[in-house]
Amino acid sequence: xxxxxxxxxxxxxxxxxxxxxxxxxxxxxxxxxxxxxxxxxxxxxxxxxxxxxxxxxxxxxxxxxxxxxxxxxxxxxxxxxxxxxxxxxxxxxxxxxxxxxxxxxxxxxxxxxxxxxxxxxxxxxxxxxxxxxxxxxxxxxxxxxxxxxxxxxxxxxxxxxxxxxxxxxxxxxxxxxxxxxxxxxxxxxxxxxxxxxxxxxxxxxxxxxxxxxxxxxxxxxxxxxxxxxxxxxxxxxxxxxxxxxxxxxxxxxxxxxxxxxxxxxxxxxxxxxxxxxxxxxxxxxxxxxxxxxxxxxxxxxxxxxxxxxxxxxxxxxxxxxxxxxxxxxxxxxxxxxxxxxxxxxxxxxxxxxxxxxxxxxxxxxxxxxxxxxxxxxxxxxxxxxxxxxxxxxxxxxxxxxxxxxxxxxxxxxxxxxxxxxxxxxxxxxxxxxxxxxxxxxxxxxxxxxxxxxxxxxxxxxxxxxxxxxxxxxxxxxxxxxxxxxxxxxxxxxxxxxxxxxxxx
Amino acid sequence: xxxxxxxxxxxxxxxxxxxxxxxxxxxxxxxxxxxxxxxxxxxxxxxxxxxxxxxxxxxxxxxxxxxxxxxxxxxxxxxxxxxxxxxxxxxxxxxxxxxxxxxxxxxxxxxxxxxxxxxxxxxxxxxxxxxxxxxxxxxxxxxxxxxxxxxxxxxxxxxxxxxxxxxxxxxxxxxxxxxxxxxxxxxxxxxxxxxxxxxxxxxxxxxxxxxxxxxxxxxxxxxxxxxxxxxxxxxxxxxxxxxxxxxxxxxxxxxxxxxxxxxxxxxxxxxxxxxxxxxxxxxxxxxxxxxxxxxxxxxxxxxxxxxxxxxxxxxxxxxxxxxxxxxxxxxxxxxxxxxxxxxxxxxxxxxxxxxxxxxxxxxxxxxxxxxxxxxxxxxxxxxxxxxxxxxxxxxxxxxxxxxxxxxxxxxxxxxxxxxxxxxxxxxxxxxxxxxxxxxxxxxxxxxxxxxxxxxxxxxxxxxxxxxxxxxxxxxxxxxxxxxxxxxxxxxxxxxxxxxxxxxx
Amino acid sequence: xxxxxxxxxxxxxxxxxxxxxxxxxxxxxxxxxxxxxxxxxxxxxxxxxxxxxxxxxxxxxxxxxxxxxxxxxxxxxxxxxxxxxxxxxxxxxxxxxxxxxxxxxxxxxxxxxxxxxxxxxxxxxxxxxxxxxxxxxxxxxxxxxxxxxxxxxxxxxxxxxxxxxxxxxxxxxxxxxxxxxxxxxxxxxxxxxxxxxxxxxxxxxxxxxxxxxxxxxxxxxxxxxxxxxxxxxxxxxxxxxxxxxxxxxxxxxxxxxxxxxxxxxxxxxxxxxxxxxxxxxxxxxxxxxxxxxxxxxxxxxxxxxxxxxxxxxxxxxxxxxxxxxxxxxxxxxxxxxxxxxxxxxxxxxxxxxxxxxxxxxxxxxxxxxxxxxxxxxxxxxxxxxxxxxxxxxxxxxxxxxxxxxxxxxxxxxxxxxxxxxxxxxxxxxxxxxxxxxxxxxxxxxxxxxxxxxxxxxxxxxxxxxxxxxxxxxxxxxxxxxxxxxxxxxxxxxxxxxxxxxxxx
Amino acid sequence: xxxxxxxxxxxxxxxxxxxxxxxxxxxxxxxxxxxxxxxxxxxxxxxxxxxxxxxxxxxxxxxxxxxxxxxxxxxxxxxxxxxxxxxxxxxxxxxxxxxxxxxxxxxxxxxxxxxxxxxxxxxxxxxxxxxxxxxxxxxxxxxxxxxxxxxxxxxxxxxxxxxxxxxxxxxxxxxxxxxxxxxxxxxxxxxxxxxxxxxxxxxxxxxxxxxxxxxxxxxxxxxxxxxxxxxxxxxxxxxxxxxxxxxxxxxxxxxxxxxxxxxxxxxxxxxxxxxxxxxxxxxxxxxxxxxxxxxxxxxxxxxxxxxxxxxxxxxxxxxxxxxxxxxxxxxxxxxxxxxxxxxxxxxxxxxxxxxxxxxxxxxxxxxxxxxxxxxxxxxxxxxxxxxxxxxxxxxxxxxxxxxxxxxxxxxxxxxxxxxxxxxxxxxxxxxxxxxxxxxxxxxxxxxxxxxxxxxxxxxxxxxxxxxxxxxxxxxxxxxxxxxxxxxxxxxxxxxxxxxxxxxx
Lengths: 504, 504, 504, 504
Description:
The structure is a homotetramer. By secondary structure, chain A is α+β, with helices and mostly antiparallel strands. Chain A has 2 domains: about 1-235, 4-Layer Sandwich (Glutamine Phosphoribosylpyrophosphate, subunit 1, domain 1), CATH 3.60.20.10; about 260-500, Rossmann fold (3-Layer(aba) Sandwich). Chain A has helices spanning about 15-20, 55-60, 105-115, 130-135, 140-150, 240-245, 260-275, 290-300, 325-335, 340, 355-370, 400-410, 440-445, 450-465, 475-480, 490-495; strands at about 5-10, 30-40, 45-50, 70-75, 85-90, 90-100, 155-165, 165-170, 180-185, 190-195, 210-215, 220-225, 225-230, 240, 255, 255-260, 280-285, 305-310, 335, 345-350, 375-380, 470, 490. In chain A, the strands form 6 sheets. Chain A has a 7-stranded antiparallel beta sheet with strand order 3-2-4-1-10-9-11. Chain A has a 6-stranded antiparallel beta sheet with strand order 5-6-7-8-12-13, with helices on one face. In chain A, strands 17-20-21-22 form a 4-stranded parallel beta sheet, with helices on both faces. In chain A, a hairpin with a 4-residue loop joins β2 and β3 (about 45-50). In chain A, α7 (about 260-275) packs parallel to α8 (about 290-300). The longest helix of chain A is centred in the middle third of the chain and has 15 residues, at about 260-275. The relative contact order of chain A is 0.10. Residues about 420-430 of chain A have low confidence and may be disordered. Chains in contact: A-B, A-C, B-D, C-D. Chains A and B meet through α2, α7, α8 and α10 of A and α2, α7, α8 and α10 of B.
């Protein structure tokens, strides 16, 4: 996905900017960048580093003395190199985005025909941030330029723009990705600094308190004195539910709802109504722990850490792109605790099941180490639809989803819903589906409690060798988040947001 | 402290060695090194890197292709550069140690007088591993050489020696630091690889199972086929209790007892008998969490993560040497979760209290964010004596301990035990004690439940602005570890191991 | 100045491209870059490194395996980051330039008003190559785009463009900077590779022979089979005479005339007519040596190396930007040879005198080491006018020229032409002139043999403590180059090219 | 070979030490190191870097601020890592050597048997400097320790020792490698700094003047005030003649004789008596130029640079160890100047002929580029014996010498002395000799003017396709150096120093 941070202050902002960006590190793994502007010298300073084999802090710490200025923005990007610098009729600016553009080729084609230039293509692909910058420049001012982005981009796009007159923040038209504004007051109660962030986790240690959750399509400008609204928010919203389930750091807050609390409540609700007899509950680090803690409380069994993540050297939550390395990292970073497993009926919570490969491997190891039973509880419903809105890395290919493979095996008759099957039995070698399933039929599988749903869940449990498996219901997620259903995107569970693919 | 790992196999061992060493990363922050030997080429290969601003994996990953061989050792060191290579009448060998030598100057002086040479002094200090190597070479064989180390070193010393005929592992004469042997069998049930480690956390993901806990003073030799005892273990033992309380990764096992289990039991025991009314329990990451989880279960209140560690970029548990940076890291790495604190009576578990500075700061922030009450439970008794045995970094200067400062204030009359006082009130500006307190008097303060103990604890709670404070009793630690009291070193709590300072 | 190289072949071109660019290293010190294109994969690959403290080879050698393709271009740049990549209605291309744009601000302003974007401004200044790329894109095809550059740019601009259909080379409209085309034939006599370069020094070791000197304003396209002319050359020319005097590597050829030969002839001519009695002749490394060798032959005295450059670690001819470091480098890289100086009447040749500071310092050292006399012969006339055409680094500020300071001192009456004076005596502290001198008066000083010229040269010799000083006459330079006077730019000596500042 | 530098001053010496070491860069390519000592803090600081792919300056420049102290030593080593630090009964010291030890295994064996330790063997070989340090420590003081080195080492050894009481310099017992002492006086005429160096090239730019050429076996101690003799020099000497011919930088002086002067005289002498008709003379850079300049003067033909070395990026004179890379570097670094070759009868001077491969290749290229004739003059006699005294890299394997291959072909009858043959014709494929030739017979080939000598030279000329070839006579070298024949080692030309292999 990626995350960004910006701040504008009355004094040098570089070090705070650096820490603020660093706190987005769990959202991206590819590129890190920061740009600052000094009103005094009139100069911009920008730096970008590859983060695929190192950390933002390691790369940028030594460069900080070279930065200057009272305002800056930065990003941990999961895709392209950012921030970009642009000099245009709107003046000079730097821009960072959290975006996905499905129709990039089409937009690029249109822009080139209008004599515009794309300079960022050495990675072999179009840089989405550059496209967004060019769309903005086509406007007569920043607001009309950003509306140009809203109108043309299929996918999603939130952005920060560092101008010579403050920082402009513009949230995705449907509010799929979040932006939160914070302020810090001096001892006299006057605002001394403003900040804007993807993750509010960046605020407490820098002394900021949340002052505004930017709405869908809303555009604001930050100065060192406060915030000014440039465009009103839309009424509708489709904020991504996976922010709470998977992406967010436990201490972050979106739309007023804290991530850890949401996870705890989801777990608590399931724990309360679940009647499985178990000895202990654990979470798959990191994102499964919040739910597990809640589940333990709701189910009145002890939370225990039967699996630990070796954080001293495997700190990052996200994984490298090569599948082979992903598998190795997945194996090496989690360490099972034999002493707490032996002879126990263990229940684990995890955020989601994508391909299921790793979970099946984990279950096997847990049983080999002596676990009597292994039960799994998942923080969301089964993933059935791909995400066309944000770069949800886990579901790159919808046809690799374990749900889809099970459904195909059912529909093709390769697997009878009632028959026993091992995980590879019913599936073809390459683990990628090929059969076309009607959307109507998929909805039947997605319907909690339907015969298709029950057969699918049972089959997944069998294939993963689990003693039991349950998924959280959409309703429980909605309730835990606390927004109306219509404002939350649950597309990957129920395919409900297809109509929003064309903005505006 | 530091940790080491070695393995000898029938095939190339480099990659497994690398991961095995990496899993010691929580034990040291200064130097990382590895050495391998190839029987075929007869060559040793060694590399050492500074880890003060980067990670073992980052530094060594690119070098792996240059390494070769079927046997190797490595270390994450908290002090000196290791492994050292030595060519001697015992043949060529590489050596790593987990050691502290109190009488290094004296030993060095003796060795120089015998025409021996010390070559590692560019850091301005004697390299303990070099001293140990020279003491070994003075023996007619490795066993008599290692006994030479046992006889001469005041402090402690465990070591691995990579020879041309296998890996020799020798545990400290009093067993203060651990060494555990693991084996891996092929599908026919034959041993295909042996490993030896400070932390058994290194075993499960590399496929090793524990085959032997090396005893105090015991010496063994590993070959690819198994283990051979070169010297029987001593009967006495003084294994460090802080291994379980503070140093160990949750999944590690010493003397048959798992770290997380020990912490859980300690917490459970205290939770059960504690009658404080609270809303939730949390742990100060990382080492306080195991206890908190147990306390929650014993006390029947939910475990909740009201403080999170930002592991994506602050992965390491240990801290940099500059106090200023330590303070910054301490502040930035822990993120309070306002949503889970507001209006709550919170209880937190932590491993120990050293100077108390950071804890006082944390308490202040938690209350500012809305916590109604802040209670603290500590996984061990008050630290009153310094550790002369291992390099326990937390208590570099015994006179900086908050206990000592409180005791001095009591004894000098600066603080009346019954009077209210703030943390700095009774203490002199430099926060370092100057008064000589008799050992007898210190023992009175160390005695759980004595009037002096109660006054001291109450005074610490006051100074740290805590609503309540309790320390774990020595007896509960002993019980949780499960060894006889006489085999566990609890010197920093009760000064009981002074008589063992001279080995043999 | 900067230099570029490109090649297009029937097989992988990466390694040859790398060496070809490396051979431009004496022309620039700031940035090095290369870009390649593979017809097969359709991909561009680009990399740019800062060369201010390291070498092109060091930076790029490890990256070569990541490059691919059969055609590529690269540059050693003395100014901005290159090559730039651009995707436009002309297709995708990479571009490198050897350029100086005096009216960059004005062009940028015009482009921004037309909704174009400048993205390269993090260095705080406009990137000339980006401007040139945008001017090209405004054309309907490459040729009309490049003519757009010719029309708009005040200064000079030669360029290489790597397109999907071959490499386009376009020489500066006035031919101020050179481009030479080379070809390589296979054993059957068929062309197997084409190359294009600033310096023909890149050709012999890569097996290319010169096939065409691109003319002023000429545009050609190279394919692997040969060269196609896209625009005819202009008749007029103003090729920079400093290419032979100072910039070029001895083995390079421009307009058919070899650098070393030109220097030798210049020296020979002066040596022949000079009647100074001396014992030996030496050159100030590197660019003074060619002239010295010729002078020795013409004057019938031995050439001797009484000063050596310590090339093992001071390889580069050009200097760092900080004046302090320039001075240190200037001091450390040249080593006087006391044994060859003592008691001798030495004559040295150097390329030019700019500020004179370093030469004065050298003379002082030579005399201290025992040289009986120190005579100096300069490879060009006195520098009196600044260069508005190429980035001639030596004369950044025309008012720092020693000629100008002497002229000002004469004209202001501070120095009498006949009076003795030391170098700082007549000049004000900051060594920068402030007085306006009429162009007519400057021409009188520039006129070889005029009373003003003689007085100026005598005064410079006095200030530098030289026993005699002579400058080469313009006519001798013209003759040595072998082109008509009207085709050679000698502006810095005689101010003769002012009328060409506006192109086309 | 390697070179070292040391200095002791009344103020911080670090920067001067750094430049002084840097000026040894032409003597080695493998490791660079420096060590300093501060009397005030009592601390040693040491650093060593690999120089195989970078330069001393690049590696050490950034580290300088971490160094401290008023005295220091350093080295550019062609073999092992240096300086070594040793703490012993002689106190702490750092040591650097320019040494070759033929009997290293034997010495190591003896030392290990005496319970001494060798710690530097990770490179797979014994570190000669460590052996030397251990031999010194076996002495009761430094002088007797160094005599221990003189007695035991077969080969050669000069050294600098940085002690807590000044710098000790000890020259090889036979004086094969040089050490020169320099002093610098303040404006009052008092000594303010002393320095000691392999190459006096390091002196002029640091302000030192030569005060003493250390004699064979002589030992001195430097303090900031001056020099004190600890051991008198021997009368005999065997200083290496290749110092002047090949190793030395032109500005260096050994035994009072300047390198460039010696080369010039050698060339002049040959030029005077040579009657070959030629058009110009050039030198093969770098070491052939001095001779060429002299030859031109003696022969009354112009010196011209028909071949240039591309110093901007190929600065180092010595070559990498891989033969393939050596060949590539050899090809790429020298650039022929076609314009100066075409139709000319060219004569080139070079330092020596080893295997002849490169020279044959160069001749071929020169002729292809149009040279009418190519004559070669060599600065020394034919190399016939290997060097057992210093690490003369060029003759690693005596049987690869072109002389030996020609001699073998003659002696075996494969080549008739009178018959025409091409270079590979008479020789077996692997270009390594296999036949045993008696020493007596070799002496006949070595004898200038003997029939065997003439046949051998003629055959080499044929194989290298040269129009003529002449070698300098031993007598001319002796005369140019200016020492008695008995004091100069000319072993590789006449096998005359075999009796000195056992020292003392």
